[in-house]
Amino acid sequence: MSVPVISLAQMRDWESATWATGQTEAVVIRRVGERLACRARQLTASNDSILILAGKGHNGDDARATGEFLNDRQVQVLELLEPENDLAKVELALRAGPALVIDGIFGIGLNRPLSDAWQQIIAAVNAAKIPVLAVDIPSGLNADTGEHFGACIEASVTLTIGAPKIGMLAASAWAFTGRVEVTGDVGLVPCPLQSELNWTLPEDFRGFPPARNVAAHKGSFGHVAIIAGSLGYHGAAVLTAHGAQRAQPGLVTVFTQEDVYYPVAGQLQSAMVGLWQADAQKMSTGFDSLLVGPGLAGPDVPPDLRHILRQWWRHDEYPLIVDASALALLAAEPFARKYIRVLTPHPGEAGRLLNWPVEKIQAERVKALREISKKFGGCWVVLKGHQTLIGCAEGAIFVNPSGNPHLAQGGSGDLLSGFIAGLLAQPALRSDVAKTLRYAVWQHGAAADKLQAVRKNWTVEDLAEEIGNAR
Questions:
Q1: Domains in the chain, please, with CATH?
Q2: Does the reported pTM lie above 0.90?
Q3: What percent of the chain has pLDDT over 70?
Q4: Among 47, 60, 149, 222, which is disulfide-ready with 425 (CB 3.0 to 4.6 Å)?
């Protein structure tokens, strides 16, 4: 299950609870080393050279323990104990061109500004542009605030122990943490902590979605309606439909504008395509979820859509997902609590919903999500971007770990909103909306990760083929 995002003090409490059971630090360090070695092996090839930078504390001990499990790699361990004298040997080791650097200089306990000598060592590592695997936290980063102590290692991957530390989720930390991954089974007792923020793990989705009844039929899995596409933006309607189809609802119908009907219909086969009608009741009858927004950016967007969308928001019983340009059509209105309402803004759209600059959205993402949800009646919010957040005005907020910067392509968000609508059309997936939304976001990112591992020039069309297939 997901793990809480915790503070330094909470991590210390967790460790103390572990030592109280008789578990030893030596056993945990060895297991951490084993997990680090496994990840280092994935990041390198056989006989590659790996440089381990080990400081004085337990973070350094974890890094040293890694070498024991890397017999098929050429490993060099540098003990960094006297920074004034260590810079030259670090520079020499970096010039040898290792395939990977394992950063075990400082851990989460660092609480003071770094000396000039340490800053020079960190600068040398960063300047080498060699991939870095950080142990628990990049050296120099404040685990609680996400700010640095004068300098910080720029990691490619941070393998954090037990649970992510709250500072890693700060926008100020993203340039240093790289991809944050969690390693859990290292000998600590089961996590006794709770947090507002919770980190999604891939194993959260074992057995999900549930197996289908052998006697099921199209009607068992719902009918998705999508209102999308306009002149110049017909591709958004197509991608959204493909996203919905990958969730495997029973039926998908796209309603689009007359001047893009043929381009949209010509690219879809199993999805039905119809024309937008300014009749709210007719447009919302016979469907199990409704998505509004992708590609509604042209000059021919229906002028009556604002009124109709607000009517649907207040009164219709099926799940309603609002994305892209349609977000600007909503009013701050309530809806019946039994209804499912989902907004999927990216940071720019979130800023427009709250009248905040994007910089504030990124600096206060949790608060932004809460405020958007409150403004729109307590709806679910998927705040997209790095470490996408899923939650609403109250309760737990979940952080998504999957995905990579190559998702920054036009149409990526359309695909996700379609996938969400396709899942929420299915009655069996509505009982736990949080899990369904988390699954959709995780699948979207995991599909991108899978593509990036095998192909560097993949497109959103490739993502449309892969989404929903990650395990």
A1: 3-193 (3.40.50.10260), 218-466 (3.40.1190.20)
A2: yes
A3: 98
A4: 222
